[in-house]
Amino acid sequence: MEVQVNGEDISPEEFLEGAGPKTQANRANALSNNQTGAHSRTSEGADGNRQRSRQQQRNVRQQVIRNSKMPLLPRSDFKIVVRPRGGLDVATTGTMRLASAIYRTANVPAYEAGEDTVCSNNHQNIIVVSTPHATHAAKYRQLQAITVGDRCHEVSAYETAPDYTVKGIIKGIPLEEDAKSTHTNIVHARNPQALAAKRLSNTTTVIVAFEGPRVPTYVRYGGALLRCVLYRKQIDMCHCCGRLGHRMDVCPNPQDKVCRGCDAPNPGPDHQCSPRCKLCGGTHMTADRNCCARYKTPYVVTKRQWERRRAAEEAEAAATTGPAGKPRSRSRTRSQAAPGPGAAPRAPSSIRNAGPAVALPEGPQRGTPRPLNR
Question: pLDDT, tens digit, for every residue of 344-364?
Answer without folding.
Answer: 555 544 444 444 444 434 444
